[in-house]
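so my prof wants the structure for this chain in the tokens format not the other one, which i didnt know existed until like an hour ago. anyway here's the sequence
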Amino acid sequence: MQQGTEHLYQAAAEALRQAKRAVITTHMNPDGDAIGSVCALRNYLLERGVAARVLLPTPAPENLLWIAGAEDLEVFDAERHPEVIASADTMVVLDVNVVKRFAPVDVKLASQEATIIGIDHHVQPEAFARIQCTDTVAPATCSMLVDLLGLIDPIQPLSPAVAEPLYTGIMTDTGNFRFPRTTSDTHRKIAALIDAGADPAKCYELTFNQSSVGRMNMLGEALCSMRTFHDGRFCVMVITSHDLQRHGCTSDDVEGFVHHTLGIAGVRAGVMIVELDGVIKLSFRSKGDTYVRDLAATYGGGGHLAAAGARVYGRSLDDVVIDVIANAQKLFRS
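here's what i got, hopefully its the right format
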């Protein structure tokens, strides 16, 4: 827990303690931390007798549908779900700090009496929540929830249906416990989650080892596309819409490929550029004292210092590739 945030955790815990009807959401194209956090909180609140529902802006990826509670995740429907949000006394927005990233699950649909809670570990949160619990040193939103749920009820141990989603979210957002924010405190929380019923082998196997042949072939092609620039310090991976179509893949299938850009000796930062229908998706990663968040912000995106993303509309793939390579030069000026 970041020093100085104790009162924010306490405020969020007290609000959740009072909840009777809760709506939970997270960002578009949810990852392991997003799905782990919404499922863990939903399962926890249901165990406490709270009527809790998860409304996602876009569907969960297939490799995370094994998580307990994922079978009941709902994708927002503009006809049915505004009434659900309006009738809730509590709305919880997890793992996202910018309103546009969880639209159309609009917080403005909530009643004036509803308590809106934001729980997130990204920097520079927008002011959309009554209680904004932001902890920028936390390695994952699921890590924050371990602390938060412990404040709500310090005596009752977490059930496996809560512990396993939390474990999965921390596992994925720390890059299997290898990213810089992975601390001794992270491992103590992981130990507690294992004691509560999380199965590490199961979580890894079902999350990472269920790829289709098409996805593995797509990975091979993506690796072959990699090129380095700026004296070998910047690596670019390019995936075209034709590549995806040919291998029967979607954007979900290439999730995580970007980490391979950092596997080349001497590379300090990398980007995966994916051509989708009407949009170019940029995923940036970096290591050491090289930071890519500001580079992502150049394209209207954001994220963490060493892991960020953006979406570019109305430009060709070739144009975006050339532009990103040119702009990446500023990462290495110092």
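also thought this was worth mentioning. The longest strand covers residues 269-276.
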